[in-house]
Amino acid sequence: MPHRSRHDAPLAEIAKEAQRAIAQGGITFQKFTCKKCGKRQTMDVPNTFYREGQCEECGHITNLEKACGFTAIMTGGNQEVMDIIRKAVSDAAHGTAPFGTAPKPTPKDVQ
Ligand SMILES: [Zn+2]
């Protein structure tokens, strides 16, 4: 499955690009770089974009309105593949999977 990611841009721009990827059958995850320690972080809630995100390494809260990015998993609109990914990320988000160490974002959904 092709992955697509891009460099950071303002949140409004990223959200627009992500919408386009979602419309093409993609599943997107917001990414950002912690302003304090520089660690790259990925949100664990698919297709959701936040105005700020907390670093899982150092706990610093970074404002994402000026700069964030995203990665998109392009499923080609394959419903079965999308369901598998949705279930996997949902399990991870609820702590039932052995992975899922994403940061805890402040839930300010911009969608
Ligand atoms: Zn950090």
Explain briefly what this protein structure is.
By secondary structure, the protein is an alpha+beta fold. The protein has helices spanning 11-23, 79-93, and strands at residues 3-5, 26-33, 40-42, 52-54, 61-63, 69-74. 26% of the residues are buried.
Mind explaining what this structure looks like?
The protein has 111 residues and is an alpha+beta fold. It is 25% helix and 23% strand. The protein is built from 2 helices and 6 strands, in the order βαβββββα. It has helices spanning 11-23, 79-93, and strands at 3-5, 26-33, 40-42, 52-54, 61-63, 69-74. The chain has a 4-stranded antiparallel β-sheet with strand order 1-6-2-3. The chain has a two-stranded antiparallel ribbon with strand order 4-5. It binds zinc ion. Residues 34, 36-37, 39, 55, 57-58, 60 line the site of zinc ion.
| Helix residue percentage | 25-40%
Gyration radius from CA atoms, angstroms: 13 Å
Total domain count: 1
Overall structural class, as computed from helix and strand content, comes to alpha+beta
Total of DSSP H or I helical runs spanning 4+ residues: 2
Shape: globular
**What portion of residues belong to β-strands?**
15-25%
Calculate the mean pLDDT score and round it: 83
Could you name the ranges where pLDDT drops below 50 across 5 or more consecutive residues? 97-102
CA-CA gap between termini: 26 Å
